[in-house]
Amino acid sequence: MPYVTISTVRGIFDVAQKQALLERVTDLMVEIEGQGNPDFRRNVWVKIEEGEPASWSLGGMIPTPDMIAGTFGALDAGGRRLAKAKA
């Protein structure tokens, strides 16, 4: 029974992207570890762990929520991606 954990900064993925990621990682595990057996799907656990931006660093820089929103677009309260503001 595989357990897959994906760690990311909170605010990078919206709800639809998380769903797609969970489904595609599951598909990949079925294909590789389950050797294509569709019954293997019920044994695959996939988890997305989201950490606060202040807990991460990229090149020594701590991303701020504004930096994340500027790069990926902000999320609304329901976790849906808002349109990025045009400069």
UniProtKB/TrEMBL annotation:
The keyword Transcription regulation does not apply. Residues 2-60 form the 4-oxalocrotonate tautomerase-like domain. It comes from the Bacteria. Gene3D superfamilies: Macrophage Migration Inhibitory Factor. Keywords: Isomerase. One of its GO terms (molecular function) is isomerase activity. Belongs to the 4-oxalocrotonate tautomerase family. PANTHER family: 2-HYDROXYMUCONATE TAUTOMERASE, TAUTOMERASE-RELATED. This is 4-oxalocrotonate tautomerase.
